[in-house]
Amino acid sequence: MAEGITLAEQGSIAKEFLIGLLQSMNITADVAVREIDEETVEISVNANPPTELGVLVGPRGTTLQALQEVTRTVVQAKSPGRTDRILVDVAQYRERRVAALGRFAEQVAQEVTATGEERALEPMSAADRKAVHDALTGSATVVTRSEGDDPRRFVVVAPA
Q1: Out of 23, 35, 61, 113, which could bridge 141 as a Cys pair, Cβ 3.0 to 4.6 Å?
Q2: Among candidates 75, 60, 67, 144, which has minimal Cα distance to 106?
Q3: ∠ CA(68), CA(73), CA(75), 5° rounding?
Q4: What share of the chain is helix, strand, coil (3-state, %, to 5)?
Q5: β partners of residue 156
Q6: What is the pLDDT of residue 89?
Q7: Average per-residue pLDDT in the chain?
Q8: What are the DSSP calls for 65-81, one per residue?
Q9: Domain 96-159, what fold?
């Protein structure tokens, strides 16, 4: 727990901010808070149908990433001490993205195993790189490593 305010209070501040943002954008959605662990809270935004939430995700989640940073900044501004980890998800985008990256990583691993040649993937965010590494961690046939400097950091999949 961060010094100053509890994780639940941080989640409440983030939820209030997102509700206000949605109202100002004329978007009807539910906002829920879930504590993932002792230092992480997730605020999820969902609507049925989720079609109008795409504007909050943006291409490859770039708008969602910015929304998460703004939400963290709002929470930090209202906290006398440091804040815990604040995650924002919209229409289960993060869950779907991790699953898609896992499928992609498995496909790349099969190619690397078949050819015996390592493959460098396109630059991606830290969260996306982690999803690729996690998807291939248990593989006996390939290993992964990150190379380069942000924002051009990328994953390399190599034969084990």
Answers
A1: 113
A2: 144
A3: 95
A4: 50, 20, 30
A5: 120, 145
A6: 95
A7: 92
A8: HHHHHHHHHHHHHT-SS
A9: Ribosomal Protein S8; Chain: A, domain 1 (3.30.1370)
Closest CA to 107 of 95, 115, 153: 115
Q: What type of residue sits at position 155?
A: V
Residue 123: CB partners within 8 Å, gap ≥ 6?
A: 148, 151, 152, 153, 154
Q: What is the pLDDT of residues 112-140, one digit of tens each?
A: 999 999 999 999 988 899 999 999 999 99
Domain assignments of the chain as residue spans, ordered by start: 7-91, 96-159
Reported as a pLDDT band with limits 50, 70 and 90, residue 147 is very high
Q: How many CA atoms are closer than 13 Å to the CA of 47, on its beta-carbon side? A: 15
Record the tokens describing residue 130, joined without a space: 């982690």
Residues in the chain, total: 160
Q: Given this model, what pLDDT does residue 3 score?
A: 60
What gap in Å lies between CA 59 and CA 64, rounded to an integer? 9
Question: 105 vs 12, 115, 129, 141, CA distance in Å?
Answer: 36, 15, 10, 13
